[in-house]
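On clarity, I found the account of how folds are encoded harder to follow than it need be. Since the whole study asks how a given chain folds, the encoding of that fold should be made plain. The format is easy to grasp once an entry is in front of the reader. For illustration, here is how one protein appears when written out as sequence plus structure tokens.
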Amino acid sequence: MDSRLAVVIMAAGKGTRMNNPAMAKVMYTIANKPMVEHVVELAQSLHAARIVVIVGWQKDTVIDHLRQRGKNVVCVEQNPQLGTGHAIMQAEKPLEGFFGDVLVLSGDVPLLTRSTVYTLLSYHREKPAAATILTALLDDPAGYGRILRTSGDGKVTGIVEHKDATDEQRAIREINSGIYVFDKQKLFDGLQHITPNNVQKEYYLTDVFQHFWQNQFPVRAIPASDAIEIQGINTVQQLEDARAVFAARKG
């Protein structure tokens, strides 16, 4: 067991674009397993000391499935659902007494591999930081948040959303995957300082980085070797594409 590692899996979303409101998005299957089960098995393969799954929409189906499969996880409900930062806040109590790194995964990103996560964790621990972001280099990064770095040591100095980016920033190919490793203490301290100052009135996890930079806590990033690993599943077509990738890997 890696006593220094806890994993939080965000799996509360509705998945409106999947066109089936009766089904939690993370319960759509790839290779006869719900997406969330693939992500839980990834967390288990890391020998994490604690695994917390944040559930919400159609929560009972997710909880019951993981229980039936004998997955040793703690499920915590996010209700109401007030954004990614709010989702991670729900993990604070289950992580009481834990000290170490918190890996944040998404239940709808089922193609992520253990080797990539090991690389992320190793980098985070070799170059201590408040947080380390898994990024990807895309030929067409339109729509994604861009990673801003210093020219010297490569530390991350900002994440700018596509709609807010300048033409120069939009030319950056490195994007934020939404997969992170945090120093646990700094994460939950930072969450106390974020506010829902946006149209949706939601707490965004990425706002924690602004708190880190204001306090001169280093933030680092490392790209995944294969950008397909960070693909989130938001549409039926993306689900079919992910199934094809998974089948090709097994073939």
The chain has a mean pLDDT of 94.
